[in-house]
Amino acid sequence: MKYKRSERLVYMTQYLISKPNQLVPLTLFVERFNQAKSSISEDIRIIKDVFENDGIGNVQTTAGAGGGVTFHPKINIDRADEIVERFMGVLNAQDRLLPGGYLYMSDIMGDPVMMNDIGELITTMYGDEEIDAVVTVATKGISLANAVARKLNVPVAVIRKDNKVTEGSTVSVNYVSGSTRKIETMVLSKRTLKENSKVLVVDDFLRAGGSITGVIHLMEEFNAAVVGVSVLVEAKQVENRRFKDYTSLLKVSEIDEYNQSFLVEQGNCLEYIKNKSNKD
Amino acid sequence: MKYKRSERLVYMTQYLISKPNQLVPLTLFVERFNQAKSSISEDIRIIKDVFENDGIGNVQTTAGAGGGVTFHPKINIDRADEIVERFMGVLNAQDRLLPGGYLYMSDIMGDPVMMNDIGELITTMYGDEEIDAVVTVATKGISLANAVARKLNVPVAVIRKDNKVTEGSTVSVNYVSGSTRKIETMVLSKRTLKENSKVLVVDDFLRAGGSITGVIHLMEEFNAAVVGVSVLVEAKQVENRRFKDYTSLLKVSEIDEYNQSFLVEQGNCLEYIKNKSNKD
């Protein structure tokens, strides 16, 4: 059977989109469509141009026997700005303010479109780094970690605050919860993360930073290198954080329980993307 | 600027793939490419043929003013079989057996490719039902719920076993853990799930069924209708489950801690898909 270019383009586009950050050998398409490598390469060039012109991602082709094509999701700054603005609009609702000045965000973490978009944004920030795993803390960080890991095509390691029998042998560290000042424990299954991994840490909310500091200590136990820390929302005023280098989508400040009000501003993620694209 | 059909096809394909179960108005493409509706419809027809011939999904077009195109992910039986077989190969490793006869699965839940594929498989089973939300129990079910919700394009509601301040007001039920016979509590934030929702319940492991039974009771508190229950792995021997109707990808039996052995077989999900496609 003979395939038209139009049919090949549709198939190859959906194939690449569904396999981000994964080397796809050209021979796979050559055999599937029994076409000359030259015309498959021409198909790829068309896909590459559209993906790059429309800020969908980069399409990297590597020559030679083991050669092939890799799709790297990478959105442009307009799209990133759009995502942050939409997120801000959703977060900016009075009734999110809970007793104790906490923000209700479970609906956002449970929104697959929002998580997917934010996953693309965080992947755009860190996609050029060498990353072996995305690490997060149960429970709310998991949906974000999944969205990012899906785009980076790396596994997720979930740190728990309880030690479950289904985790096998674990490594644990104690940490001081920045907000409650209580001593708490976090554990990670030994099998979940390989020694000497390079990890990206993501979480939903950054307050005093106690739990992220705990994660960083736990990563030391695994001899893991933390290549980045990215959070959806950070509380602005907080000063004495034990780590400086992180990105956030939004900043929340002036939380006033009495008047049920708080201020939402952009975090530093858009600057981070701009600076990166200037370097490229 | 004028776009070639090839460029339109690449763009429209990635757009539809990234927005499953979502009505995309044709006018969006008509305006973006400033093309006659007729040629956009012709583009859609090409995409539809490839998607349906290659078992990627159905492309549904609705006519009229509010008309448009919707991509429904739906894999074919060969692809489904491939996914179940791969999952079986991964699960079938001696060293997964933990003290107490539990199976270590966190690496599988943290594998984004595996979760994405299984998400497509479960969506293929239940995608024709009317579903408002995917419900699961923290912690391990969350990755699966995200993968399914992403394909169904509905929110995820995560039931927790602890009551967190960040959840706002919650509804809770007690249940008897089938395996430990202990009385436990599960809670769901009132805001996370709308009253009278139609929900699909997913979880990683089904033992005696105590926690799924708890979920079903909790859903009653929300006047929610459970349209289906789907689990990755079920323990085979268990008899007296309080609910009959569910699908599983794999069945585990003859768990022998002493000899570090257990038996893995296919669950009923492939039959379920075959029966469904016969009905269609």
From TrEMBL, chains A, B:
UniProt domain Bacterial purine repressor N-terminal: residue ranges:
4-73
The top of its lineage is: Bacteria, Bacillati, Bacillota, Bacilli, Bacillales
Q: Does this entry carry the keyword Phosphoprotein?
A: no
- Subunit structure, as described in the record: Homodimer.
Specify the superkingdom. Answer: Bacteria
Q: Could you tell me what this protein is called?
A: Pur operon repressor
Q: Where is the Phosphoribosyltransferase domain?
A: 114-257
The record's annotation in NCBIfam families points to: purR_Bsub
Q: Which CDD domains match?
A: PRTases_typeI
Q: Which family does it belong to?
A: Belongs to the purine/pyrimidine phosphoribosyltransferase family. PurR subfamily.
Q: Which terms are listed as keywords in the entry?
A: DNA-binding, Transcription, Transcription regulation
